[in-house]
């Protein structure tokens, strides 16, 4: 099967552009409280029927509020989007923004563009879903390619429009009326940037395109394959690091990671705090990997197939109740998931959002993966998307939901025996420790160190040494997985296409670990904390949301001490 790379720049941009608007109703307020017996949440009976979805729940808040029918996922209709019309609308409104003196007139025109962009995003998602369902389907393979290619053009036009709004005398009025205070600050760069800056951006895009092109025929499953691809992919990464350094310098930053944290991800923590966090992880959590049982038996779950996996998730959702149960019933009643097996299915798992129906969907290919744990993980994302209408507050918060749900679902799912439940809960914790916290922390340190090198220091061999040292420092070198090979950095796609992202996995895992600990110490309290997060994420940043939800910041030494103590107890090390 030909490997495919999905580029979601448009969808990521659209989530923040259309989602962070003052008029959006982004968190459902019509869900029942959780039945967890805690002081924070009052028990209520489960709702008799699945709540209706409202058309204006997310980006299109200017539309009249009314119920929207949601078909089964298999019955959602794909029609090739009229991208020519959408591009022309963007261009016309961009030109009009330079001279129009009426903010409401601009907004009325923008609303139509937003509706068409909304539809494009839905068709893009459906094309990908149909392709993922059957990679041998030539029609949907071509349709996905078409939408993917058009997304780059549409993203460019969308950015140009918002840059024009940012430069308009009506900027403040537009923000007050719809977009929200400070929205256009992100687009000042487009108006201030010179030709040299755009040339650097084009160089980065060209290198990414070269990477994607070579990736079609490259494999990284063995040490020999890593060695075979080492210089080629290593060379591309080195050029990307150099170009990105110049991009950061053009924006007044000494280091690309500092620029990335502030400009791309808009985090409320800095690289300095990340270094302090990484030191805490190495001091408090990496030593756990000296335990042979954790090192040898991590992520050993009981394996279950499609029917039982859904049955177990249903039992867990019924017990957790509230918006978690609402989300499950919405998904189950409308069959907004596909977790079946077929040989031509794309080997991936993801949760997405179909804007036209205000509906999240889950897709999982169960081959080569444990369906149950993957379903629990994706259902964490699903619940978030259901409650926020597809707009998480931050990448870190989104990952906190998915990782916490893995533990909570195992804690409540029936009909596990006590030994099965204990085994799966331990496996969830070891999975969080090894894969999410330690591995991603090692990857994050590798990135920080790579982007701190002088251009003349950037060689494949130097990067091999840095990567190998990071793996060793976090206690991972004895696991024997392919990713512990010192050359594996050439194979990890995040380093090439989403630089600076990986730290999100690690810090969110420490946050989710608090929810796991609360649930273990007092059943129901972890569920209550999860639901508190659901009502606080939209438009807010990670650390602020965590603290508002009465959780400890992962950057606090005390939080790391608690995490280490909890894991030591869970693994019987006390």
Short structural description:
This protein is mostly helical.
CATH class of the largest domain: Mainly Alpha
Separation of termini?
48 Å
Order of helices and strands: HHHHHHHHHHHHHEEEHHHHHHHHH
Overall structural domain count: 2
Percentage of residues in DSSP E strands = under 5%
Average of per-residue pLDDT values: 86
- CATH architecture assignment name of the largest domain: Orthogonal Bundle
> Helical region count?
22
**Main β-sheet, spatial strand arrangement:** 1-3-2
Helical residues, percent? 55-70%
Low-confidence stretches: 1-51
What's the oligomerization state?
single chain
Outline the secondary-structure elements.
Layout: H1 9-19, H2 83-97, H3 103-133, H4 138-167, H5 171-179, H6 188-192, H7 195-215, H8 223-250, H9 256-264, H10 271-285, H11 292-297, H12 306-320, H13 322-333, E1 337-338, E2 349-354, E3 359-364, H14 371-388, H15 395-412, H16 418-450, H17 460-473, H18 493-497, H19 503-521, H20 525-534, H21 542-548, H22 557-570
Parallel strand pairs: 1-3
Antiparallel strand pairs: 2-3
Helix pairs in contact: 2-3, 2-4, 3-4, 3-5, 7-8, 8-9, 10-16, 10-22, 12-13, 12-14, 12-15, 13-14, 14-15, 15-16, 15-19, 15-20, 16-17, 16-19, 19-20, 19-22
